[in-house]
Design a protein that fits this description.
alpha/beta; 6-stranded mixed β-sheet; 3-stranded antiparallel β-sheet; globular
Length: 265
């Protein structure tokens, strides 16, 4: 066991997460060294679709990815119990920039082919629509500027669409909940299997400790979170954290595991 621990001490684990407040809230204390980890951590930030693609190609040792892509990488990666985004009332929204009902004759823009948002849209629309893909922040700007008519919105902009004059077509998460009576499995943290089950367990504990420290902080929205967020208002950032960070982030449990199995179907 001592030899294995020494090997971890010398290792550098490449971690990939998004800049979204739920990820930075969970991982801040780990990244800043306030949680003792069994290995060195090198962090890289990217949008969720890029994270998915990098895990599909094996570029990250550990990463936060869409639950919808996990079944494509489970031969090489194991899922951790902590660090995920699941729950109720937190799903992506299908929005319109022109105030119309859903138009099956035009494209719907999704924030990445492998995202859970894409899977939830297809579950709602029964794969009947033409879809195109666009990075989540560009997608939202394009809706707001009326350069596209329909798109699925995720992350912080879930809280700003009304003030930006957009119109709700469907709450895709609410549809999932209504149909399947299960939490919405948005994101999960994975680690390479060849790093060993022991390190995976250690990193689970480290993420849980990082999250515990974040919950205990007097001010939930730190400068670290604020600088990386796509939105400037602290109240919106706080809403985001409160919606996407919950007991499932500490441990997805049997209910979260069941929801992920449903996503495969």
């Amino acid at each position: 066991m001592a030899e294995k621990q020494n090997a971890w001490d010398e290792a550098v684990v490449r971690l990939g997460i998004s800049t979204c407040p739920n990820d930075t809230f969970i991982y801040q204390n780990l990244i800043e060294g306030k949680v003792k980890t069994p290995c060195q951590i090198s962090v890289e930030y990217a949008d969720v679709q890029t994270l998915n693609e990098k895990v599909l190609s094996g570029d990250f040792d550990m990463a936060k990815i869409s639950c919808a892509v996990y079944h494509l990488v489970e031969d090489k990666y194991r899922i951790l119990d902590s660090g995920g985004a699941m729950g109720y009332g937190c799903g992506p929204l299908l929005l319109s920039s022109v105030g119309k009902d859903f138009d099956t004759n035009i494209s719907v823009y999704l924030p990445g082919k492998n995202t859970t948002a894409a899977a939830l849209f297809n579950f709602w629309a029964k794969n009947k629509n033409k879809v195109e893909y666009m990075r989540f922040d560009k997608l939202y700007r394009s809706l707001r500027e009326k350069r596209i008519e329909q798109g699925v919105v995720i992350h912080e902009h879930r809280f700003t669409w009304k003030r930006d004059g957009l119109h709700l077509i469907a709450d895709l998460g609410a549809f999932w909940e209504q149909e399947l009576k299960a939490p919405i499995p948005l994101g999960c943290t994975v680690i390479k299997k060849d790093l060993g089950e022991g390190l995976a367990k250690e990193m689970d504990l480290c993420i849980q400790e990082s999250l515990r420290l974040a919950w205990e902080r007097e001010e939930p929205v730190s400068d670290f979170i604020r600088k990386l967020a796509q939105i400037e208002e602290d109240d919106v950032i706080l809403q985001h954290i409160r919606m996407f960070v919950n007991e499932y982030s500490m441990n997805r449990g049997e209910e979260g595991e069941r929801a992920m199995e449903m996503l495969k179907c």
